[in-house]
Amino acid sequence: TGTATIDTSVAHSGTRSVRINGGGNYCNHVFVGTPTTGLGAQIFARFWVRHSTAQPQNHTTFVAMHDAADNNRNIRIGGQNGALQWNRESDDATLPAQSPVGVSLSTPLPVNQWTCLEFRLDTSAGHIDTWVNGAAIEGLTVDGVPTQDVDSQWLNRTWRPQPTDFRFGWESYGNDSDTLWFDDVALGGSRIGC
What we know:
The chain is mostly beta strands.
């Protein structure tokens, strides 16, 4: 039931953004995106997102990337337990681990304001860095050394992602809906910054 449209009434910069009306119900989804060809081993993304609803307790996704190294299953960014998380579709591993300590090392996204979200995927080492408004988020970092309540579950297997696309939108694994806007989306081989 979700829709993706160009919105001329809300924008981070310029005069347009992508508006996602994300519906509830299990696996209800809508995404728009682009291929990630030619980016090399270090993939950096920067985008501005604006949520109208606080992240719910249930699992949701607003960024998804098909992983050619994992049978094209998705690498996802979204939320659970009210905070940001990464999720690997093939084994449902989460970053951070969804314990009280792990969730406390992540951060919620603010509501009704633009937030700059950045990440780095190191496809040769399987590392992840995540920044919100320029600040590194401890619970959303994979450095190759297992850390209890952060990335020990994620590192239970060797993971060398090969994302083939970058898609943003909404997918709900419960009954949660949201209206989101995305703007100033950029991909590159080095950090872009807010």
